[in-house]
Amino acid sequence: MALKRVAITLLALCGLAAVGDALRCNCTNCEKTGYECETDGACMASTYYTQGKEQHVRICINRDNLVPPGQPFYCLSAEGLLNTHCCYVDYCNSVDLKVPVPTKEVNWLGSSWGPVELVAVIAGPVFLLCVLLMVGVFLFQYHQRAYSHRQRLEVEDPSCDHLYLAKDKTLQDLIYDMSTSGSGSGLPLFVQRTVARTIVLQEIIGKGRFGEVWRGKWRGGDVAVKIFSSREERSWFREAEIYQTIMLRHENILGFIAADNKDNGTWTQLWLVSDYHEHGSLFDYLNHYSVTIEGMIKLALSAASGLAHLHMEILGTQGKPGIAHRDLKSKNILVKKNGMCAIADLGLAVRHESITDTIDIAPNQRVGTKRYMAPEVLDETINMKHFDSFKCADIYALGLVYWEIARRCNAGGIHEEYQLPYFDLVPSDPSIEEMRKVVCDQRLRPNVPNWWQSYESLRVMGKIMRECWYANGAARLTALRIKKTLSQLSVEEDVKM
Ligand SMILES: *[C@@H]1O[C@H](CO)[C@@H](O)[C@H](O)[C@H]1NC(C)=O
Question: Which of 36, 177, 332, 334 is most exposed by smallest CB count within 10 Å?
Fold first, then answer.
């Protein structure tokens, strides 16, 4: 009897678990979790050809990424290139799909002759004529340069990547099309792949934690290509995932173009393609140039706008989750031609899922750059269950970046040489212990010189910095508050943004 009761209870529990539980899918790149993953969205299986070999990919797609609803980009196939299938029951993506060979056959009508076929024989040519007519109209418009029409993604049309990749389109056009026609999170996957595979690498422009950064050319325009070593697949995937968060695009966040994993037979090359900014990082920029008061305000305000957008949660189906950067520093901020900042390197970012009030990945202890770690991160008192803690740590780092900028501000003919924060208090490449002693035990902060008080803008910057550096994270300013204060300053100082 007892056994039976236990059995019934177990069964009931399993039933409950099945109802409340997430969808389980096969996952080709999840060695850690036994080639399985869990999601609130869909299972996806995709088959494509690279270098004559069939590749199978099975992954989870989170609900956030199932855009537009009904026909998500992630679930699209491209004829002769990519066969993709999304489904919504456990392990349904275990199927082996074939890449369909491009064919002119109208095989959707079946193979035996019947009334349906007769209709097809009659309707076929009519249909073909319509298609020809449409192509004609399209070509006509193309020649007329009548670009006022913006092609929307026709999901039923398997050749829509040709529309996207029409020969004379620049990346800006492509991405503009995307952000006006849908999610605003980027190009569809197969378009990303096509773009990535037609980039010509030019020169190496940097080495990062995860690999190299190159300048590349695509249709005459410059792009930046971050190439991850194959051991860093998780970092590549994570960064691509974060960049494709719905509604992330913002003028002060590095513009993401494409992610691609190229298999060259022996190893996988992992690419992340983004906008290219010739000034490079804020760190390089400040090393080379001093800035005017106007320049300083522009840099500071644009960085705050970018961070405010990242942090902000937008509710609704087309909303965006709150995102904390976790590795903000002058080397991870780029300077655009117009003197504004673009926040980059989102590989360590965490997203907040407000419905469940959870963070989308298990945040590991102390990541990021030691020099920029907030006191609560250094002494491990940060409350990692609380998403706002990560935002507060970002603000502390932003304060340090502001200090780096303000030192290079040329007011009344004086400016200081470039230095990293805490340059006078810790050695280069400091250990966590060395940082903790200075920042937590001695409670020291970078020096705010007295002469800054004589210039309104530097006075305001100094005040913001101090309010970013409080030992108590919750007492610090928010990115939005900083943005508002600096906007006001930019109006007073007549800075044109
Ligand atoms: C998918 O996962 C199920 C359950 O773990 C397993 O039985 C099946 O073999 C997997 N399919 C593939 C193609 O890996």
Answer: 36
pLDDT tens-place string over residues 391-423: 999 999 999 999 999 999 999 888 899 999 999
Give the three-state DSSP class for 351.
strand
C-alpha atoms less than 13 angstroms from C-alpha of 464 in its C-beta half-sphere? 31
Residue 237 has a pLDDT of 87
Q: Residues of the chain with pLDDT > 90: what percent?
A: 46
What pLDDT is recorded for position 1? Answer: 44
CA pair distance 265, 259, nearest whole angstrom: 19
CATH architecture of 158-275: 2-Layer Sandwich (3.30)
3-state secondary structure of 388: helix
57 CA distance to ligand 1 middle (Å): 13
How large is the average pLDDT for residues 54-68? Answer: 79
pLDDT band at 79 (very low <50, low <70, confident <90, very high): low
Q: Report, as residue numbers or ranges, the catalytic residues.
A: 327
Ligand 1 mutation pick, 56, 85, 91, max ligand atoms within 8 A of CB: 91
**Atom number, ligand 1, closest to the C-alpha of residue 96:** 13
Encode burial over 454-491: b for 16+ CB neighbours within 10 A, e otherwise.
ebebbebbbebbebbbbbebeebbbbeebbebbbebbe
- Output the residue whose Cα is nearest ligand 1's atom 10: 94
Domain ranges of the chain: 2-112, 158-275, 282-492
Which residues sit in the known binding site for ATP?
Answer: 226
> Which range among 56-60, 199-203, 225-229, 371-375 has the greatest average pLDDT?
371-375
> Residues lining ligand 1, judged by CB closer than 6 Å?
26, 36, 91, 94
Q: Where does 2-112 sit in CATH, by number?
A: 2.10.60.10
Residue 44 C-alpha to ligand 1 middle, in angstroms?
13
For 178, half-sphere exposure in the C-beta direction (CA atoms, 13 angstrom radius) is 30
Assign residue 223 a region (left: φ > 0; alpha: ψ between -120 and 50; beta: otherwise).
Answer: beta
Q: Is the pLDDT of residue 166 over 60?
A: no
